[in-house]
Amino acid sequence: MFKNKAIKIEFEALVILIRKDFINLPFTWWVWVFLHFYSRR
Question: Which domain of life is it from (predicted)?
Answer without folding.
Answer: Bacteria
